[in-house]
Every structure is written in structure tokens, then in C-alpha cells.
């Protein structure tokens, strides 16, 4: 990829010689990012104002649900300090590349023929190693996740972000200009207060909000399969109405979904027919309605 000038000294930190005849490394990467993103029809940033709301569970099941409906889907984990996607999908593969292969695009992990995955854990020999990075390293990693991964043609790219409004969601917003935010909340007022911050973040960085989903909206009793409103319910819909945003659904807590995620078997393979499965299906249908994509078989 290097276009380095051989006749004049290069400036520190880029590929540009003093003669100005070559592109900076960032400019080269920008071109690769643009090329990759033109092949992806819809981009969804799954975010939340606080931790513990089940954001990764929502992102994983959204990606799986879209793939099961026949779409080509990518799932990108930019929660760099606490990546969970590999474990939730029971993906143990590690990236091993020869010297020759290092000049080509990195193949993502494949859950199945419809779902591709990228996570920092894919590149780590020890997945329990702490990631101690500051902003610039995180920003560069996210850019590389787009520029250097062979995503190919995708209908949807689902991006799982860490909680809050820090480097990772900001980097996604600055790098993927047409990304839309799917904000995850729980019913409690404390969580809803943080969601309002996420909404205002999206306004500041010009991200369109796809909608809100209320996770942990009641608890499904494992004995009688009936919902119990431990945290209350309806706060997410009320907040969506307050801000004139689409409300995409309520997903209850279900021990089967929790156990499935821990075992690397998400709800589609572990909780068929349950109330939470039906809720997830309705939520995914609403996402498709808000962000429709024509499959290749429908285009022909």
C-alpha cells in the first residue's frame, strides 16, 4: 500500500514526502473505508447511555434475526475494552496470517453463510487480556475494522458500541456518515435519563436515530411463562413519544435468553416459541420496516 517518495524525507506519522507527491496513510485508509462502505447498504449503531441494559444481546439477536430472514449481515464489535460478541456466538477462531497474507484484506469470522463477525477478540491470543488503550488507538482500530476487513456486499452492518458517548460511538459517527443509531434502554427512570443523553449525542454529531427498543421490559417467570414487571414497563415508549422517535418494541427478560447467550447459543436456537422470541421477532420486523433493504433475489 505504500506510495512513499524515495527522493525526499517523509514527515513523521504519515506517508507524505516533502515534495507532496504521495498520499498520507490516513488518506489511503480513507479511500479504503469509502470503498468498503459503498458495498454496505444499511449501517446500524447499537448504543446505550449506560451499561447493563443488554445492548450486546440486542445487537447479536438483531444481526442473527436479519441473517435468518435471508439478508447478508455483518456484526462489528467496537466495544474494545469489553468485547462479548465472540463468546455470545461461541466463536473461538483466532486470526492467523502468513507474511504474504498480511497485504490482503482480513477475512472476518463467519457464523454462517449470512452472518460475518469482526471483534478485537478475533485478533487476541489471550481473550482475558485487558485492553488498555487511549482514544487514538481505539479510533484507529475502528477505522481498520472497516478499511482492512473483507466485508464484501452486505445488506446490513450492525455495530455494537460500548455504553456512553465516548471515543467509540463518536469514531463510528465520524467514519460512517450514514449510520443510524438504535438506542437500547431499560424501563427504569435512571436508564431513561441516560438515554436522553444518547439522543442528544446523536443530535450533536448528526446521527439519525433509527429508534428506541426497551430491553428487560418485564421478567418472564420460568415456572409459569408469565411476565412480571420487576423494573416496570413502558418507559422506553414514553421517551420515544417525547422525542418523536420510532419505538421499535419491548423485549422482556427471559432466563432462556440469558442462558443461551452465556452458552453461545442466542435466542433463535435456544428459546423458540417463548415470549421473548416473539418480542425479538416483532422488534426485528420493525427495524426492517424502518430500514428496508431489497435482497438480491428480489432485485433480479
Write the layout of secondary structure elements.
Blueprint lengths: L24 H13 L2 E8 L7 H14 L4 E5 L7 H4 L20 E4 L2 E4 L16 H13 L6 E7 L6 H9 L4 E6 L3 H16 L3 E13 L6 E2 L6 H8 L4 E7 L1 H8 L4 H4 L4 H16 L5 H4 L1
Helix pairs in contact: 1-4, 2-10, 4-5
SSE-based structural type: alpha/beta
The CATH class is: Alpha Beta
Indicate the proportion of strand residues.
15-25%
How many structurally independent domains?
1
Shape: globular
- In the CATH classification, which architecture applies? 3-Layer(aba) Sandwich
How is this structure best described in words?
- The protein has 300 residues and is of the alpha/beta class.
- The chain has a single domain, classed as P-loop containing nucleotide triphosphate hydrolases (Rossmann fold, 3-Layer(aba) Sandwich), CATH 3.40.50.
- Helix content is 36%, strand content 19%.
- The chain contains eleven helices and nine strands.
- It has helices at 25-37, 55-68, 85-88, 135-147, 167-175, 189-204, 235-242, 255-262, 267-270, 275-290, 296-299; strands spanning 40-47, 73-77, 109-112, 115-118, 154-160, 180-185, 208-220, 227-228, 247-253.
- Strands 1, 2, 3, 4, 5, 6, 7, 8 and 9 form a nine-stranded mixed beta sheet that branches.
- Helix 6 links the parallel strand 6 (180-185) and strand 7.
- Helix 1 crosses helix 4 (135-147), helix 2 packs across helix 10 and helix 4 (135-147) packs across helix 5 (167-175).
- The longest helix has 16 residues, at 189-204.
- It is globular and about 60 Å long.
- The two termini are 36 Å apart.
- The model is unreliable at 1-16 (pLDDT under 50).
Amino acid at each position: 500500500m505504500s506510495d512513499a517518495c524515495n527522493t525526499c524525507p517523509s514527515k513523521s506519522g504519515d506517508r507524505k514526502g516533502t515534495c507532496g507527491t504521495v498520499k498520507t496513510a490516513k488518506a489511503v485508509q480513507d479511500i479504503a473505508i469509502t470503498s468498503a462502505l459503498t458495498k454496505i447498504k444499511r449501517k446500524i449503531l447499537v448504543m446505550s447511555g449506560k451499561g447493563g441494559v443488554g445492548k450486546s444481546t440486542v445487537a447479536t439477536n438483531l444481526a442473527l434475526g436479519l441473517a435468518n430472514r435471508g439478508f447478508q449481515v455483518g456484526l462489528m464489535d467496537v466495544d474494545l475494552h469489553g468485547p462479548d460478541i465472540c463468546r455470545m456466538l461461541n466463536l473461538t477462531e483466532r486470526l492467523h496470517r502468513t507474511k504474504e497474507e498480511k497485504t490482503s484484506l482480513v477475512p472476518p469470522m463467519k457464523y454462517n453463510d449470512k452472518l460475518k463477525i469482526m471483534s478485537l477478540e478475533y485478533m487476541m491470543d489471550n481473550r482475558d487480556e485487558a485492553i488498555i488503550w487511549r482514544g487514538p488507538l481505539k479510533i484507529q482500530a475502528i477505522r481498520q475494522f472497516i478499511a482492512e476487513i473483507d466485508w464484501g456486499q452486505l445488506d446490513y452492518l450492525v455495530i455494537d458500541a460500548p455504553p456512553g458517548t465516548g471515543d467509540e460511538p463518536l469514531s463510528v459517527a465520524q467514519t460512517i456518515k450514514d449510520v443510524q443509531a438504535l438506542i437500547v434502554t431499560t424501563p427504569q427512570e435512571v436508564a431513561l435519563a441516560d438515554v436522553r443523553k444518547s439522543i442528544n449525542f446523536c443530535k450533536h454529531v448528526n446521527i439519525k436515530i433509527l429508534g428506541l427498543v426497551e430491553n428487560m421490559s418485564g421478567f418472564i417467570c420460568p415456572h409459569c411463562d408469565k411476565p412480571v414487571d420487576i423494573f416496570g414497563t413502558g418507559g422506553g415508549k414514553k421517551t420515544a413519544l417525547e422525542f418523536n422517535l420510532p419505538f421499535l418494541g419491548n423485549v422482556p427478560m427471559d432466563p432462556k435468553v440469558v442462558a443461551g447467550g452465556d452458552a453461545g447459543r442466542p435466542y433463535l436456537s435456544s428459546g423458540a416459541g417463548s415470549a421473548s422470541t416473539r418480542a425479538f421477532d416483532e422488534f426485528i420486523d420493525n427495524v426492517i420496516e424502518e430500514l428496508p433493504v431489497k435482497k438480491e433475489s428480489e432485485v433480479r
